[in-house]
Specification:
The chain contains 2 helices and 18 strands. It has 310 residues and is mainly beta. Strands 6, 7, 9, 10, 11, 12, 13, 14, 15, 16, 17 and 18 form a 12-stranded mixed β-sheet that branches. Strand 16 and strand 17 form a beta hairpin. The longest helix is centred in the first third of the chain and has 19 residues. It starts with a helix and ends in a 22-residue tail after the last strand. The relative contact order is 0.12.
């Protein structure tokens, strides 16, 4: 009798386990830990073996959201197309440090009705159909310049707050080594450094281009111009030296990996000047290009330290 009772008890326990622990209809909860970012609501009643929809990305000042991961160290990303839920889980937000531009535009309030968005534009060369007269066998592939939006920000209250992303299309990166030589007079810590620049900041209304935004100051008495160029480098970078044929132009650049602001000061009459990462005594103002003196027409991304090949 004892043996029969023991077997019956085991069968009963196994039957109960099947009904509870192995129930394919059991549902689970997916919790999202934004790790310092905005709150993301959990997804409840997820069926066993189901995929889940990607929630709205959280936000955090000064950072760019870089995806949901399975552990706090953010080593293994959760794939919303293929990963399935088989238990109660928590997903963790990964963040990349961005570069904050907090801009108040000179006379900016007068543009509130005419501008609703600012875009940071970069560009890259893409292979395109060759035009008539272009011999691919002789001249090689034909490339065209393609603009790429790096970041956007709403324009409001006479200014904008933008975060330049820490991650972007790698095709936007280029190097001095691509040009085959370092300009005479310059010493660069690593000619293979990969670089991305903001070619220009565009102001838009309902998706339509309105004007360029530039960050510069001009002294019309001394003809001194100071402006800022925003540049991303994939490693720490040091550039020193002088390029004589440019006016001359003195380089004293010390950049850290990521986004940096380079300050360009030069005399508009002689072209002589300096490019440095040291903060100027007075920061240049943000202004609309149409507000600049009529006799000065700035080029987009003037005085670049590196030349893109297109």
């Amino acid at each position: 009798m004892r043996r029969l009772f023991s077997i019956g008890a085991i069968c009963t326990a196994m039957f109960a386990f099947v009904l509870t622990g192995c129930n394919p209809d059991k549902t689970f909860t997916v919790t999202f830990d934004s790790q310092g970012g905005s709150v993301v609501s959990p997804i409840e009643k997820v069926e066993n073996g189901s995929i889940i929809a990607k929630p709205t990305d959280p936000t955090q000042d000064g950072f760019e959201f870089a995806g949901w991961y399975k552990e706090t160290a953010c080593t293994n990303a959760w794939n919303f197309s293929s990963d399935v839920v088989t238990s109660n889980i928590t997903l963790y937000a990964k963040w990349s440090q961005g570069f904050i531009i907090n801009a108040q535009v000179a006379n900016g309030a007068t543009y509130n009705a005419f501008v609703d968005e600012v875009r940071a534009i970069s560009g890259m060369s893409v292979e395109a159909p060759a035009p008539e007269g272009w011999d691919v066998d002789v001249d090689g592939p034909y490339y065209e310049y393609q603009e790429v939006i790096l970041a956007t920000a709403p324009y409001q209250n006479g200014g904008f707050k933008m975060i330049l992303p820490a991650q972007f299309d790698e095709r936007l990166l280029y190097s001095m080594a691509d040009d085959g030589e370092i300009p005479d007079g310059l010493t660069i810590s690593d000619p293979n450094v990969k670089v991305c620049t903001v070619d220009y900041f565009g102001a838009y209304k309902n998706g339509e281009y309105v004007d360029d935004l530039v960050q510069m100051s001009i002294n019309m008495l001394t003809f001194e111009l100071v402006m800022i160029n925003y540049m991303f480098v994939d490693r720490d970078l040091r550039i020193t030296g002088t390029i004589e044929e440019e006016g001359p132009m003195v380089y004293d650049i010390n950049m850290k990996q990521g986004w940096n602001a380079a300050f360009i000061s030069m005399n508009m009459m002689t072209g002589a000047g300096k490019i440095t990462t040291t903060l100027p005594a007075v920061m240049p103002l943000w202004m609309f290009q149409s507000d600049l003196p009529v006799d000065y027409k700035p080029q987009k991304a003037p005085q670049k330290m590196f030349k893109k090949k297109f």
